[in-house]
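Dear colleague,

As promised, here are the two records you asked about, laid out in our usual form so they can be pasted straight into your sheet.

NAME FIELD: protein one
SEQUENCE, THEN STRUCTURE:
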Amino acid sequence: MEMEKLFITGSVSIKELPEEVKKEIEHIRQCGIFHVFIGQAPGVDVLVQKELLGYPSVTIVNNRPIKRNLGNWEEIIVEGDDFAKDSFMARECDSCLAIWDGSSKGVRKNIDMVLARDLCVTVWTPNEGFKIELYVD
């Protein structure tokens, strides 16, 4: 059985993951059915990498040499800018988990790219304290 590909994206301004988000990541680990695509930026990317330590199915994606790969996972370098890197993950995924500060334009663009493919996006907004699930009808 092929694993579901999950794109995790988030804001660099977020310095701590709420317990609810940590529980969701633990659920991802426990299910073991997801292959996670994530970047290596400070903020959410690194915080989620810490939570995923020991989970084998992770790929770190960036558009330049990777500096933060906490789990020594597979790495993919995408040619181009940050948009090219994020577009790659948005094209590869089956669903998306976004941890968004509500203002990051990059995370918003990632959400929009996944929704444009008629896929589910779960959005956590830690600053607002709520979670929403977005689907395209």
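NAME FIELD: protein two
SEQUENCE, THEN STRUCTURE:
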Amino acid sequence: MYLDKAYPNGIIYPKEAILPALEKVKRDIAQGNCLGEISPEREDLISLARVSHRVTEVWYNGEKNTIDGTIAILETPRGKMLTEMLKGFKTDFDSTFAIASRSIGNVNHETGVVENCELISFDIVLKGNSPLMKEIPKKTIEWKDLPNESIE
């Protein structure tokens, strides 16, 4: 998640709104309650039928002004689907998949700045044309043991 930069839709996630939300989601992660999906259908609700992974860690990267993190792929139907998709795209998935933050908040329609933001999760999505999508780095994936490994 990039901070203080406009996404293609004009939305800007300012650091001062996101860092407090990050602390809350860290508490959810510590309790094992931060689950993610492949291509979520709703912004505000995690569907247990669609869960593919658990967010294991998030942090603020001050050098890049981003929110970074790790996930663990789960042994759920969608987790197994994700594992197979990643195996199928292992030669070119950097251009295929990305991590997208899921959040809710108020958007100032004049400036595009998000206020009162709540981070819900981080999901796996098909990478769009946005240069601001967080790519899944290929070098961190162990293909033979993917469900038990983390993706950074």
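A couple of things worth noting about protein two: Residues 15-145 form one domain. The chain has a mean pLDDT of 79.

Best,
R.
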